[in-house]
Amino acid sequence: MNDLTQVLRSWGDGGGPRYVRLADAIRSAIERGDLPPRAQLPPERTLANSLNVSRNTATAAYDLLRSQDVLVSRQGSGTFVRAQAPRRWRRETRSVRSARSAARTAGSAGPRSAEPIEFLAAAFPGVDLLTPDVLAAADAETAAAADTHGYVTYGLPSLRVAIANHLTASGAHTTPDQILVTSGAQAAIFLSALSLVAPGDRVLVEDPTWLGAIGAYRAAGAEVIGVPGSPDGINLTACRDLIARHAPALIHVSPSFNNPTGFITSERSRVALARMATATDVPIVEDNTLADLDLGAGRTPPIAAVANGALVLSIGSTSKLFWGGLRVGWIRAPEDVIDGLGQLKLVVDYCTALPSQALAVALFQRLAEIRSARRRQASQRLGVLQDELRRRLPEWRWRAPDGGLSLWVQLPAGLSVEFCQVAERHGVVLTPGSMASPSGGSLDRIRLPFVHEPEVLVEGVRRLEAAWRDYDRGVDQGRVRQIIV
Predict the structure, then answer these.
(1) How far is the C-alpha of 398 from the C-alpha of 387, rounded, in Å?
(2) 268 with 306: CB under 8 angstroms?
(3) Using an 8 Å Cβ cutoff, are 227 and 234 in contact?
């Protein structure tokens, strides 16, 4: 045990919650190799006594590391360092693990529903808008390209035209040569990371943000630093200070709309951020995958439309608007940047599947109709979810989103990572808020997508109510661990 306390070194230095600092120290020891894969850690009580901290602090640190897939616990055996991937990938992959794994860190005690309802990280719409005539049009588009070799690294020409027209209509004049088609928005983020980030660089992201972005930048070797967000977008004062302090390789934002909060960045803040990026020569990666799903906020021109000389890479996707299974995304950037990204794409996946691109072309031909239908559907399902939450869980708090497909809900007590474990035993799989925070914050938050059919949302909230009553009783009676910092 003395060896471990030496390995953890000055774990208590710095600010922030003590359990987060302890978790960071254990993670750093693993990354240095001081704690090898499969090494057994001491019981929580033993660790707490050795470090002269409360058992709650040690328990919360282990819980956080289990939720990030750094540690694994086996009933009756103890807690171990997970058998990890090579060192470079250890830290970054934890953010892109399945939220299902994060929710199961406490084992499988207690009854489970036969059919879990999943409110997971990837909020995708269903297949309902892929009508027979759309599929027939996609078949015709595929047949037209069948005479070629099919390797279209930069994207099917007709799709690049469709995307360019779509972005021009949004306010950012775009030519087809400024478009690189990717295998979904996640691939677009990763290609952007590979293009702009070198190992050891720092990247600024909104906190909270899309957990897949955190994972992509860490996979590229970056240190990801969170910038506080607000209902008006990224905190510009904090962003300016962090740029001066860290000289980041890029700033990643989701102006329309933040994932998970659903907030929209005002046009004033977009212009100010673009000016800041121009003055400091820091590129912006704007994730606009939810931009067509406004819920009454109206459409605001993308940052690329007010770039003011800044380098802006704009990312979009078909999966949020058309269908989750349609893994077609894009990057919009200056032509010379697109040329470089295309060379990286050759290495990563060579090209995006042609039938998927053909289907995207057919769907873009009906964009206005589909967008209107999807907004109506999202608004209706948001209304169902909010009504049920107000009726069954009036103590929960949230701000109605400006757009997107999810609610960012604040729990009145306890930790979301603990509640997610209880919720799964009641048949609901959730994502704890800490997965959306590069600092491990948002500990009292959960993300609730509203993409399910209304009757599923109603049943999901019913199960959440039962789970919350169980969890809340545990908090009141001291059976659920509380963190005092």
Answers:
(1) 12
(2) no
(3) yes
Same structural domain, 278 and 353: yes
**Which residues are CB-contacts of 147 (< 8 A; sequence separation ≥ 6)?**
none
Q: What's the domain range around 201? A: 132-365
Residue 409 DSSP SS3 = strand
Q: Say if 95 falls within a structural domain.
A: no
CATH number of the domain enclosing 431:
3.90.1150.10
Whole-prediction pTM: 0.77
Of 318, 346, 365, which residue is a domain's last?
365
Q: Alpha-carbon distance 425 to 80, whole Å?
A: 24
Please indicate, yes or no, whether residues 352 and 380 belong to a single structural domain of this protein.
no
Structural domain count, the chain: 3
pLDDT tens over the chain, length 485 residues? 556 777 786 777 766 667 878 888 898 888 878 888 888 999 988 888 888 888 878 888 888 888 777 888 877 778 999 875 434 434 444 433 433 343 343 333 344 445 899 997 556 666 676 777 777 777 777 777 666 677 899 999 999 999 999 999 999 999 999 999 999 999 999 999 999 999 999 999 999 999 999 999 999 999 999 999 888 889 999 999 999 999 999 999 999 999 999 999 999 999 999 999 999 999 999 999 999 999 987 789 999 999 989 999 999 999 999 988 899 999 999 999 999 999 999 999 999 998 899 999 989 999 999 999 999 999 999 999 999 999 999 999 999 999 999 999 999 999 999 999 899 999 999 989 999 999 888 999 999 999 999 999 999 999 999 999 999 887 655 555 443 23
Domain with residue 216: its CATH number is: 3.40.640.10
